[in-house]
Task: structure prediction
Amino acid sequence: MRTSIMSQMQRSFSIELPKLVPLQLPSRMETHLWYVIPDEVKSTSLLKQYSQLLSPPENDKVLQMRGDKLQKNALLARTLVRTTIARYQTNNGVDPRTLMFKKNMYGKPEVDWQNYKNCSDPPLHFNISHTDSLVACGVTLHVPVGIDLEDKDRKIKHDVLTLAERFYSTDEVTFLSTIPDPEVQRKEFIKLWTLKEAYVKALGKGFSAAPFNTFTIQFKAGTNGGYNLCKEETKKCNRDWKFGLLELADSHYAAVCIEDDQARAPMRVIVRKTIPFVEDELISESKFL
Amino acid sequence: MASLSTTSLSFKAPSTRISQVLKKGSSFQSVTFGRFTSSTSKSLRLQISCAAKAETVQKVSDIVKEQLALTADTPLTAESKFTALGADSLDTVEIVMALEEKFNISVEESDAQNITTIQEAADLIEDLVQKKPAA
Result:
């Protein structure tokens, strides 16, 4: 049954892959956040299997990264996307090697579902982010998603307020300048950076469509990590976008942004740590208003 | 006679810089040289400013190495993409700011977004430095 799809592919699929455990689709207003800790993936034979999942252009891109560590992280990022998306397909599992990807007209990567015309699964949305020490992928159903990671201890070489004055909105600068402790100020700057990046990535229209200083993301007092998106010019806030900010692996801030599907319901984020083909671990479930 | 001397003058000034363009390599085809005869002096200058000095490229590389905390053995060339060196968007912003401080220039956000390699950064820097009014 799958041989017709396979015959369209140029690559040889004679190599057997371990089975992937299927996953239940995310429900409405839910983001599944998956992460891999590169240092925990040590087996060279496992990494070899991962590289067999990638398309030739993807492998080329991995090899263009300068240095072993960066190459490994790039490999893990593509592996995480392919295996995760494949696991959500309910029709007897999909070979992760057969997934195809394309870019929207602004360059945002998305799954190319053209080979799955008979597939009745609704399209999944995904977004990846990675740092030196963490690789993550957010998955949603029906709604665009953007995620961004930053190392909590990331050193900022320039003065935080100088950076904010140049790149952030006036309300955000005001917020940061009222923080007396420089360490707390640095952390809040980074949290804001991840939230703003996550929004731009969810929007999927490139950075020039939403320059950082044209919008404010403000914390909603008295809620569980909820944020509002407001336009700098008009100060108007809109509820079309939901944000969540979490800490991952004790080392990173992770921001998640999805477009509200008119449910006006809280966003749930389910975090799982994984090593593809090996194991999954449920880490947390959070609600963001 | 008078008209002959004016035509010969229009080629004198750029001749030393053309040799720099030739050294850059295969990206310039012979067709480009055909355009030199009829192009305006403005487009002539744009062709020449593509080859940034090696010194500028070195300074940019040093700043990038520092910002990204690259080890000494990381392979780095002028064509290296920032993303291939592990830079994320915050790194790129800090790199551009460090370049502004080093070269005493100001980079527009739209220009900053188009910088993806060390060579591109060096080219933009030289362009901006040239445009600055004389001190």
Q: What stands out?
A: The mean pLDDT of chain A is 89. Chain A has one domain: 5-11+23-288. The CA atoms of residues 250 and 263 of chain A lie 32 Å apart. The two ends of chain A are 45 Å apart (CA to CA).
